[in-house]
Amino acid sequence: MRAWLLRRVAAGIAIVFAAVSLTFVAIHLAPGQPFLPPDERPMAPEVVARLRRNYGLDRPLPEQYLRYFVQLARGELGESFSQRRPVAQAIADAVPNTLLLTTTALAIDFTLGILIGLFQAARARRRSDVALANVTLFFYSLPTFWLALVLQLVFALWLGWFPTGGVTESALYGSLPLLGRLADRLRHLVLPALTLGLVGAGGTARFQRAALLEALGHEYVRTARAKGLAERAVLVRHAWRDALLPVISLAGVALPFLLTGAVLIETVFSWPGLGKLAADAISARDYPLVLATTLLATCAVVAGSFIADVLTAVADPRVRLTA
Amino acid sequence: MVFAATGEPTTLLPAVTTAAIERDVFDQIFLKLAEIGRDGGTFGDSGFTPELARSWEWTDPLTLTFHLDPRARWQDGPPVTAADVAFTFDAYTDSAVGSDDRTTLIEHIASVTASDSLTVVFKFRDRYPEMFYDATYHMRILPAHLLRDVPRATWQTAAFGRAPVGAGPYRFVSWTPGQSIELAADSTYFLGRPHLRRLIWRVAGNLNNAVTMVLAGEADAVEVLVTPANIAKAKADTALAIYPYAGSTYTFVRFNLRANGDRSKPHPVLADPQTRRALVLAADRPQMVQAVFGGYAKVPPGPMPQVWSWLWKTKLTPTPPDSTAAARLIHGRHLSFHLAVPSTSPTRVQYAQLLQEQYRRLGIELVIDQVDNPTLQQLLESGKFDATLESFVTDPTPSSSVPALWGRGGPTNYGQYSNEKFDALVRTASSSATQEAAQTAWEAAFAALAQDPPGIMLYALDNFAAVNRRVTDVHIQPDSWWGLVRTWRIPPNQLTERDRAGR
Questions:
Q1: B180·A170 Cβ contact <8 A
Q2: What ipTM goes with this model?
Q3: Which residue has the higher pLDDT, A125 or A312?
């Protein structure tokens, strides 16, 4: 177990180092340069040159690379070019928003997906299964931004039930009581979380249905039925536990999403999360911010994979965490 | 009052920023010595209204003396003094600060000194008609007592830029990154407390989101609508009033007269004036304006936005399209060149496609390269382009941006255009003593440009702001859209829950 752990940690560090290094080289060699104001008013070349000097961008690339990793080793992520403040602050502001959105979306995705999959498997090949299969396929195949725009149009613009975007109603939020603030946050969360959750649930349901149908064909299920167990008990207590394993792996793959966010949804709903932060950073050639979001995303992928392995071992006694 | 913001400021310290979204906010917090009049005139001091300066006089032709309003105070208490003005000039002209206005200021103003606590003296290097404009327009006066000890090289990231203190009608309250910026009316503002109690900018992130927020009633105003579709939606919304105003942007194709990536050689296609003239004649600009903007833009007869309204009153007219004459000038040659277009602007991409189609009919091959803005800027600075499709936001006067973009040696003359006659006429126009004389000289300068075109001037936008109807006394200032918000009102019977919040 210890050897497995050490191996995973070493591999994780190597993966993170490689990802950040590749991103460093790629973003610096990509065409374009930082320090552009958002409107059509390019900065004077002398101002850009001075800014480049201030941020060390006039130094040779290998020197910048070394400086970056020395800085990183000290626990510093640098200054954002586009936000003119420490990268750590920008990340710290975006993380809670992304976590709120993505955990809610994943909760909708897996709760709804697993329940639908379970329901379909229990009624396999009946009309309700076929109907749900079509519905889940429909949602699964929808581009998220398209669904986002439709939900925004219907529920925000036409019906006015939910806001079109943002995290809170800025003008009112400060004067609301605690419950009012919670309700306000919830109202803003509904459409973006539902968009992500519905599309995700379409895939999860299909995955869960297939895994459960496969589990139902195993001999231990026939044995359980032969013992006279109720069909519900066979399905939930025996087959479902087995069918959860692939879903846990799916959750492991989905975990990084908690921190990488959802660029398109965050953009459509003006949600100030990590996905939008990373996309804006790339557009602005904000090298320190791009590298910090890459670092965070890679760490999330490594951690997600690690957690999925541990959870699989917990759920399946046949799996052993060995080197 | 909630504004839907298409972007988010990087800093609110005026000396280090030029972007419109930043100006929208800091124009409420900081004041100039005097504000440009509603007619947008930049000649002499007529039309300018006092702000921090109560009065001014010319001591001699090169010396301008301002007397500050003794009632003016910084929002943290101390009075605004002449030393603050001298400090501000020193900061704006310090290369360590990196102000975009530095070049203009040091070119014309020799010194700014405080002769007593409320009197400040500007000494100019030369005499020209826009001296007063240059002394007042570029600088928002900054508090020396708060910024003196902040190293100039760190102003770009200074904490002051995230919690500024000014002497204007609104105080800074909060900035929630990615979400909103809030200001509150300063009840002690020496020119009278503004009517709107709170101003909030909600970060929408892009134009579409901003317009959607206003249409949904979640924001009260958006400063530009840009597309005919947005204008139509806003006009159809009975809760919104539409305010047209002159746009300060013009969009153009810039030709590179030097070889792509090698400035030592002429461009094989675009160095030839006859070919450039043919390319202008082959572009049916009136048709493109109609197709894309449905009449909400004009074809400019020169490099000019609509905000220079006095220039539009000249006899200048855009070169009319003439494909026959264009074909004659081309002499059956096969022409081919690349046009770099910012992919983030659907309007400009659409224009590029229309242009491509019009040129195709004449056998001219136009290859469209869609690039993002940082790449476009790099292409321009390195000279690695044939032609670009750009927009430019101007100052209220042509004197600064026209020579910068199109004059020989101009800092942003990336196409290396050179026309001695044009340069001489621009110098004449910039030093003309009267507006009429300047108008005549600019007219001649733009006529010279039309004969030897550095690019194709495609369109100058009409701007439209959408503001909720419950807001009254709305005036949009073309050079600083929300510059007059302090005079806007919401009648008591029109106040909403949002307006009353926090009372």
A1: yes
A2: 0.82
A3: A125
